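DEPOSITED CHAIN:
***
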Amino acid sequence: MGRQSRSKRQKRGRAAAQLQAQNDFGSVPHSFVFHRGRGGRSLRQLVADVRRVMEPYTARALRVRKSNSLKDFVAVAGPLGVTHFLVFSKSTASINLKVFRLPGGPTLTFKVMEYSLLRDVVSSLKRHRMHEQQFQHHPLLVLSNFGLQQIHVKLMASIFQNMFPSINVQRVNLNSIKRCLLITYDAETQLLEFRHYSVKVVPVGVSKGLKKLLQEKFPNMSRLEDISELLVKDINLSESEAEQDGPHNVTELPQAYAGRGNVKAQQSAVRLTEIGPRMTLRLIKVEEGLAQGNVLYHGFIHKTEAEVQELLARKEAKLRLKAERRQQQEAAVEHKRRQREAQREKSLEGMRRKQQQEDGDSGAEDPGAPEQDAAQEEEEEESDAEHYRREVGEEPDRDLFPERSKRKRLSSGPSRLRKRRRRIPPEHPTASNPQPTAPGTPRRPRGTGHKLQRGAGAAARPRGRRKLLPKGKTIFQRLGRARKGKR
């Protein structure tokens, strides 16, 4: 049986849903995660793990070449809607992380104090919970201890919040929250803890045996006398399942959540399982622009107001000098261009003056002058023929007044130069195929054949080229030498 075709209403709804999805995808922030310079295997794996955290609004298969510069990424970021760069670099002392806000900055530079890869975190857990469906939606960002009034703390909080799509608490779909990204700031040590968790929701208020039945996992009931004991008593379970739930993670669900027993307006427990990677960061400095502006904050170097003003004045003077040099270069380029134009006009004027002098001095026909019209030439030819008829009284021969080929030429503008064809000298008649002679023509004496060939034939055939013999053979004669016995 064939597949039923969709109706017009279904097609319109599908098209509208695709358009809405494209608009939503283009309105959210996107990011590039890559490394610069030489990095080892661990750094490349850390970059791949951070890309997993930023999914699905990041370039998972981004390839970076050594020849690519930061300007190349900035050039392609605009059309692709990329708003943030996370750039890792490795030095002899440490690993650094730079966060760029496009298109105009600022730039935050962090020092990676400690890090653990995703595989290291997962291998340390007894039961990890991670699957591909979790990475179809962006993680829920949770910021802790970012309420301080310091300017660099507020700036960090703003940068981290704008890296992920904003959510509406009243209208958010709980089933789309599968992961959680927790960033904690410690004011005393000035360190940031970067943690990535998987979210799991389980019902509470029932025994663990009943939870197993709801999850289609049948517990061991060999020590039970009745099935009611499974609902009333808590049987001993494995240590991996003995996770304590309490007021710290129990809440009432406003919506039905995926999983058995997670019903609306019922008590459920939210459990977090770390899936990595894990990083400990320290803010080094904050710069204006894309790592090329003024330093707004530095974690180790503190300057007074006078020193800051002196640096600003020095930078302004440097920029002013650069602008003046640019203006001088542009003025010099314009002056040279004008000189070239003046020299060109002067040369053309001299050429015109010389051409006019030559035209006035010589009485020869100007090759660039327009030719006479075809009608005028035809009238001249007819007048010559008529004059011959009147004077002689006979019709002129055809060879006396040959017909000229009439070609259409432009009445204005110089005539085109015709390519002169090279004349081919006529070949000498061979003895096997003698040319017929008219009756009464005296024959050429035998003794003068060689002299005529060297005298009169020399003009037709240049010396040093080959000539044909009577039997079809060819010989080559050098200039100024002649062999005896061969003709």
About this structure: The radius of gyration is 49 Å.
